[in-house]
Amino acid sequence: MELQTAVEQLKTLQAKMHAYYHAMELIFYDSVTAAPPETDVGRGHTMGILSEERHKLFANEQVGELLAYLASHKGELDKQTAREIEELQRDHAMLSRVPVEEYVAYTRLLNEADNKWLKAKNASDFAIFQPCLEKIVAFSRKLAGYYAPEKKPYDALLDQYERGATMESLDQFFSQLKAELIPLLERIEAAPQIDNSLLQRPSPIERQKQLTQYLMDIMSLDRRYAAVGETEHPFTVEFNKYDVRITTHYYEDNLFSSLFSVIHEGGHALYELNTADELMYTCLGEGASSAIHESQSRFYENIIARSEPFLRFLLPKLCELFPENYANVDAENLYRAVVSVRPSLTRIEADEITYPLHILVRYELEKRLIGGSLSVADLPGEWNRLYQEYLGVEVPDDRRGVLQDVHWAGGSFGYFPTYALGSAYGAQFLAAMQRDIDVWGATAKGDLQPVTAWLKEKIHRHGRMQLPADLIVHATGEPFDPRYYIEYLKEKYAAVYQL
Amino acid sequence: MELQTAVEQLKTLQAKMHAYYHAMELIFYDSVTAAPPETDVGRGHTMGILSEERHKLFANEQVGELLAYLASHKGELDKQTAREIEELQRDHAMLSRVPVEEYVAYTRLLNEADNKWLKAKNASDFAIFQPCLEKIVAFSRKLAGYYAPEKKPYDALLDQYERGATMESLDQFFSQLKAELIPLLERIEAAPQIDNSLLQRPSPIERQKQLTQYLMDIMSLDRRYAAVGETEHPFTVEFNKYDVRITTHYYEDNLFSSLFSVIHEGGHALYELNTADELMYTCLGEGASSAIHESQSRFYENIIARSEPFLRFLLPKLCELFPENYANVDAENLYRAVVSVRPSLTRIEADEITYPLHILVRYELEKRLIGGSLSVADLPGEWNRLYQEYLGVEVPDDRRGVLQDVHWAGGSFGYFPTYALGSAYGAQFLAAMQRDIDVWGATAKGDLQPVTAWLKEKIHRHGRMQLPADLIVHATGEPFDPRYYIEYLKEKYAAVYQL
């Protein structure tokens, strides 16, 4: 084979894979934005076929040979192509071990599960979802065995979302968090509590939508390529770097739910929009990992938007849009209300201190589910017990408990820890960023361009060119260190609660 | 080959074709409902690849052999499978003659054209669209040559949308219409004119949306499988018979635009929703032809909804939703306003009498464009001249003139005549239906079930099991006869205008 021809075949293969990805992601996006409620059968039919076609296209011997040939000529290839081969060889090895009929059955199962989960959640009845979740857990364990037979199943799954993450590294990470955050939470709870009732003042949804547009402007989300929709659970999807969709959910009595979700998803969207053009239609044209992705969304949401300078900047806009709510509120009050700590039932509404504890619950549960020491039937009870233990809250029903998140219905076991990792990465990025630019000076003016430019240069533009651990060293000058996160939280909340 | 195996291969092939269809139609649907404005490049990339994969899957020798083998065993097959083979052999013969690279280039061109057309329309500047349209015309002529080299190009294209339609048959059809409708229009214009200003009363869009839901209820559009969206130009798309989307467009000062578009698209949707289950995922699981499809949408829109009994039934609902507008309007006035005839610039807003003349203009122009006797550069001038000649209206700009419809940007040369044919089919269906059921008695009560049941039994459930001409005979007991249409129009409008 001629090297140039082989490289062309490699690019064509990736472009095709990308087209299937686009189609399948859009089918998912449509299912939660525009599709009528009982359309999952036809969607499952199509998803099954497209995933099978995609699997066949990639997980075959010729592709294996092509990749092996190219890998043996790595020295003659440009850096990007060499890196593509690295990633593709890994995926190829994993996927080739999954029989196509199982891969397709799994795709169909997940399509069905999404619908079942929503029904169960609406009815607040875990039993509706339980049989489906049992199948997903069994399938996930099986897939883990195909992906990395030498690893423990949950380690194999973790590696899907954060390369290099293991139960060992995460146990250590979470035990550090637990050791610091549970005492911190106790001290906060012992301190005088902050009245945050101003957050619940009724805010007309039409005005909230105007605020969304304003926030997207502040974040410089280019509306030629980025749009916002509405879904039950906010998320971001990119079909390519020039076609990114974020979603949010509006609640009349919870303006800040939508406000922070827009900024969070906007952070994901900026990452995709800022990926280098030359990575488009390749396997590198997306975020480096789930945790790095979450580090970006949570950076904008928590570090930037939940800061005193940003809220001081935003307040006049809030007064303009909701004059009856904020006329008598000053920036200090708004900031204290926004960052006030309240152990609660719901992950996505949680404050920065309790958030990692919500994740800890999920991490421990899915580790045991996939490890086989917890049955799906016992999951709700264990969920409720851990919420009591770590957060001190009683779970009144499955809807606000074990059914609150879609992730497990999507087969995403191993994803949750990336939220906590991402938060921790973000704090380390902040420390490095502050050495280069005046983060708070710019933020106080509502100018997020310097922050975004820094993140673009250090992280966004590289896509998946580097592994997460390397990217962190490249961006911050040192390996990942959770101390930055712990210090960030302690310092911020000690000041707020005058501890 | 074993017959049973071959049949299974045939079903699998169709299911795969359907999955690609679903993905590509959804990409189109998304592009006009939710996509950010400048996302056509990435979409074109994906559409190009998917259409290529779909082409390769179908237009190859093995499929040709499979079909030939099955065709030679037709006597041993059930009726549905035999009919599938008939349709697929025809498509296979046509598509196999189109080189895959041209097919893909055409898909990409159409994706680009949609965007260009919208820009040109918004700027009211045909020049923006002209180069693109020139390419589409050239491509369409080329495709016509591949499809049916023995036919004149426009005949080959007409046959795509209405099997058996030719310039000869359509020239005859339209000359009959012209001979009857232009004098009828003159008599109407000479009669005392109807004041229809009540149609323009401002109607809050939120209330219009409530009316949409009400109309969908009246039509028994099952919301588990049918949803409504908003687009510039209303349309219907089905991903399968259990996933149908209609769209509409709301104008504050034109309630009836949205009202009739919902009923029109609802008619298309009912056709799809009522197709027999066993035709799902096969090439027969859609409407028999474009004209038959239009016959259904226009039946509900014009024959049912633009009738005195229906409007009398609807008036209380209009009074409830828009009390300030209809408190002093009686049903007779509403009916006369709704059916009032006004030569105008815009096809989709046209009354029943001038509508076929709008189609006639398009038919004559596209016949000449594809025939080669009209250049794209001369199209706007000819458009304006014919509007003056047939409708007596002066076209002030391209936006309201030659750029008003998306069809040519979609490469749909030969589609427009199906609107007029569909209207004519509908009148013949009405005559047959009235022999079986009390159409107006039920309509007066807002009960459209008997009408829909009749259409489902005679037309909807059959999908593409029969050719349009056969379906008409089957449904009405006689071949298509445009006299029903002409009589329907003459009778209805003679009564309204007391001619």
Helix content of chain A: 55-70%
Radius of gyration of chain A: 23 Å
Briefly note the structural class of the backbone of chain A.
mainly alpha
Low-confidence segments of chain A, given as residue ranges, are: none
Tell me the CATH architecture of the largest domain in chain A. Orthogonal Bundle
Taking all residues together, what is the mean pLDDT of chain A? 96
CATH class of the largest domain in chain A: Mainly Alpha
Largest interface: A-B, 41 and 40 residues
Overall form of chain A: globular
Any idea how many domains of chain A?
A: 2
Strand percent estimate of chain A? under 5%
Oligomeric status of the shown chains?
homodimer
First and last CA, distance of chain A: 68 Å
The number of helical segments of chain A is 21
- Main β-sheet, spatial strand arrangement of chain A: 1-3-2
Give the tally of β-strands of chain A.
Answer: 3
- How would you characterize the largest beta sheet of chain A? 3 strands, mixed
Explain briefly what this protein structure is.
Two copies of one chain form a homodimer. Chain A is mainly α and 499 residues long. Chain A has 21 helices and three strands.
Blueprint of the fold:
Two copies of one chain form a homodimer.
Chain A: H1 3-33, H2 40-58, H3 61-71, H4 79-96, H5 100-123, H6 126-147, H7 153-161, H8 167-190, H9 205-218, E1 226-230, E2 236-240, E3 243-248, H10 255-273, H11 290-305, H12 308-321, H13 323-326, H14 331-339, H15 355-371, H16 379-391, H17 417-436, H18 439-444, H19 449-458, H20 468-476, H21 483-497
Parallel strand pairs in A: 1-3
Antiparallel strand pairs in A: 2-3
Helix pairs in contact in A: 1-2, 1-3, 2-5, 3-4, 5-6, 6-7, 8-15, 8-21, 9-10, 10-11, 11-17, 12-14, 15-16, 17-21
